[in-house]
């Protein structure tokens, strides 16, 4: 997900934007199809469908499971009925703005921006005290993700099914993790060689990549308001960068501008690819499964990279209680980011995810005024408001489902998981509510 890097001044050399990956909110697992989903007949019974790995799903009454994909005819009918009910409602251009989902996705986006700011701040503290180990410090994040989400995956899937997933989809998860790790790595390299302004301008390329890949590979068709929202957000970011240039905090001349810009372009491209890839993954598979594999493969990939590139920095680093505290803060902020990002990708999209993170620049300045003595230029609040306006405009599409209905999952979302934040679960809940209402039980 591009982890769009906030304006972190020259001190934020160790910027880490996290991909996606995109991360399960408070370890909330999604609600499986609970009892009594509706079909046309009275009191329909859903069969215990087999998921993609040939094992039966949990009984209907088991809650809290970020459900496997179902293929029963009864469930398909229920989803279709629920989607029809939701989409047939009399909606206006502003209808989605009045839903809880809209305010939730806006709030999650700002929490993610604060997480980026936190990781950059802790990285700056470490760099200032001589502990400059960008690859090594990320290993702890992947370890924490593995410790939290692998037990959940084994609990819900069992060892036999987990091994089947490794055999069948392990290579896909490896690619996702590799893109994630390398996107972070090349972005950090870009900040070492080019200046701050150039590196941040290159982050716009990540948004372009997301839009192009989503359009061509995932059949996403952006509506005029969505395009306008993206443009307005980018305009807000442009004002922010202009204020940096006016105040002379764009980092000055880089060590090697060409090399830095190429690294930045590569990092932004990898971010865009990983964001779209992760959105595709979390729409089809449980969040805890995706995050567990990101953690496992992230440890391996980042460990090898740290052993190759961070050995000298590790030996020269300063190790004391302060450094340990900064590492803990960095790890927790990053883990929260990873846990929330998939939820954002389900409820919104990779494009909305990217433009939401543009506000990280503003939060970085707010924190920097107290921590690093920054001053607030008058254009910063203007830029922040403009980005928020762009986020609102993005959802002026008249759809009550927002971006949660994914075109690559089919009209009835049959290829997707019925998990928290998905259109499929919303449709099932709507179908259940309508059925219960007809029975006089609500």
Automatic annotation (TrEMBL):
Membrane topology: Multi-pass membrane protein
Annotated source species: Podospora didyma
One MF annotation (Gene Ontology) recorded for this entry: transmembrane transporter activity
CC terms in the record's Gene Ontology section: membrane
InterPro entries listed in its UniProt record: EmrE-like (IPR037185), SLC35_F1/F2/F6 (IPR009262), SLC35F_Transporter (IPR052221)
Transmembrane segments annotated in the record for this chain: 93-119, 139-159, 171-191, 197-218, 225-242, 262-281, 288-308, 323-345, 352-372, 378-396
Species classification: Eukaryota, Fungi, Dikarya, Ascomycota, Pezizomycotina
Keywords from the named record: Membrane, Transmembrane, Transmembrane helix, Transport
Protein localization: Membrane
Superkingdom as given in the UniProt entry: Eukaryota
Entry keyword annotation includes Metal-binding: no
Family: Belongs to the SLC35F solute transporter family.
Pfam families given in the database record: SLC35F
Record-given protein name: Solute carrier
